[in-house]
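Sequence only, no structure available. Ideas?
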Amino acid sequence: MAIVDIKKLESDLWESADLLRAGSKLTSNQYCMPVLGLIFLRYAYSRYKKVEAEILKDRPSRGGRVMPVEASDFAEKSALFLPKEAQYEYLLNLPENVALANLKDKDGQEMNSLGAVVNNAMSLIEEQSEQLAGVLPKTYTDFSDGILSELLRIFNNSALDNVGGDVIGRIYEYFLNKFAKNVASDDGVFFTPKSLVKMIVNVIEPKGGTLLDPACGSGGMFIQSDDFVNQTGMNANNTMTFFGQEKVEYNAQLCLMNMAVHGLTGVIKSGDEANSFYHDAHNLNGKCDYVMANPPFNVDKVKAETCQSAGRLPFGLPSVNKNKEIGNANYCWINYFYSYLNNTGRAGFVMASSATDSQGNDRDIRKKLVETGHVDVMVSVGNNFFYTKSLPCSLWFFDKGKKQEIIDKVLFIDARNYYTEVDRTLNEWTEWQLKNLNAIVWLYRGETDKYLNLIKEYKTVLETDSFEDKISTLKNELKELKKEAKEKVENSNRNEKKKTQTHYDELISKVNEELTIAKEAQWLYGKFGDGEYRDVLGLCKIVTIQEIAEKGYSLTPGVYVGVAPQEDDGVDFKERIQEIHKELLQLQKESNDLMDTISQNMKEMGL
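Reply:
I predicted one. Tokens follow.
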């Protein structure tokens, strides 16, 4: 989903919260889940319609009539079936006065308000999914029909037709930050961006077995793992078992809703029993094939004795203060992620950047960890990858089943200068950039065939055997197109100018997109050619455990990869200055026109 669509949805959410605040006396805790429940309903309906279309494609007919879809058809496709009365379109099209419609709920009781109908929809969905039982909000009779009707309209947004990734979680985080900060009781609890989740999943490569996220939030790791497994032609529900722990109950409810709408089943525990510092809620120590997480960073006041007795600390406790508390629990998490793995397990997680070099007990733990040979890959991530936090972070990867030839090595990647700017406050990795970073890991692991398949994919998409030639061709095409656009727009009559400009903007955008892909292809091929790994200054380096020991057991990529030489950014300076000058002249003209209008208005008013 494009970021602009999400932002539109967020602004609609703001509008909805204003409505709730104005029309009810509910606290943020009380209205948080009902609003998310409506988003869930809309999201579920979008997913339902897509799967229904797939089912109907090859549907047999009897007597000229296509056989109706049934719950079992959706179960076969690992999707959530929605009875008619739980479908968003049904709720949208109810008569204005529900009380006069003689509607009955699933238990045969009369429903006299829209709130009752929405509650019934939630109950019907819970009957379709065992893991949703008791999870969905059913407090809609607290709202007036007018407010609920308006909310349903607001969330009838086409942006929710795209069901890829953890969209609900993205919206949920926005909601928490705007209206219900008191719901997120832990400072470190915030949504994991899709870029980081995808990178973790791509490097971990889940194929089958047990996956645990002991700080699962809204379930993004599960959703992306599902996508990864399904792309390999397997069904994640049949090959994977998902377990989650989430102390904040709101987040756990959201996780269950998110999984259900993707047709996933899992066991998610929440509340005090799911506090990972004190509980292995699923008894999975040493049993996991995969561990993925974005835990809260820098948590303090963790009770050291209780934590120690809860186990899963193979490398020992972090530093303990005079109050017998752990002042920074980052290395508790790092211990846990390692401890949960079975003999061939892989772990990938997000961690505060400071943890790669922290001292004291942390350094001792890190030394023991490095000496196992199971630290696989370390990635530095730049600022502005999180939606509401500007902090940098690192991605850590463990692999207890590493190949013998790399058992004493670690791959360091410094990706702080490799990203796409979405807007002034947000960066991400595009799909191609994710593939490129993944390709470096493949070469380190000796999986040259995967790298070569990616180069082949680039050549197919770009229809070329030479990325440099393609870049040159596209740059010339872009230059000519801009020149042609300028002439055509200037020579168009007044009524056609906007249409002509829009036409050329679309053509220029397509060429720019292709040029971006060609540059990413050249970025990768220019460094690794036909598939031979080599250290790249400022980007990546394979380092031995002995070298890490010599650097005081630092796991900071920048310590090893060095600084890259300054590259030409490809911007034509003269052309850009001319563009800026043109923009300034246009702004000046608009300013003068505005002043003339104001002066004329003042004259007419006799001022």
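Residues 179-189 have pLDDT under 50 and may be disordered.
Hope that gets you unstuck.
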